[in-house]
TrEMBL record:
Keyword field: Membrane, Transmembrane, Transmembrane helix
Pfam families to which the protein is assigned, alphabetical: DUF1003
Transmembrane segments: 41-58, 70-90
Protein's recorded name: DUF1003 domain-containing protein
InterPro entries to which the protein is assigned, alphabetical: DUF1003
Native species: Nonomuraea ferruginea
Amino acid sequence: MTTERLDQPRELRRSLRPHYDPEVFGRLAERIARFLGTARFLVYMTVFVAVWVSWNVAAPARFQFDPYPFIFLTLMLSLQASYAAPLILLAQNRQDDRDRVQYEQDRETGERNRADVEYLTREIAGLRLALGEVTTRDYLRSELQRLGEELKERR
């Protein structure tokens, strides 16, 4: 039994599994999924299939590479669909994760805004109460006018 020394770095383990960066792969999957959802992709696929079928129907027999039941075309389209579906799901999962983070940030912002509004409401209420106890300019004017009139009457 060998003991690992904690003061020494571990040896690198070689693996037969390929290494990939999930973030880079995810971004690539999103770009592909975004392209698969465009009208341009539909036009490209329609033109591709039309050319394929036209060539294999109209070309001389020796130049046809996929005769009538178009089995190779079916295989190609099935292969494309088998890759497209997981790529689209991966892109959707990444979007769901981003949406979840955005929702959480929005919720926290909403809570902070609500707390700020409640604080400002309490401050405004406190100011209104304090202003009720403070002499206002209009009140002071009316009192001075009343006192002025009283002084005139006494003279």
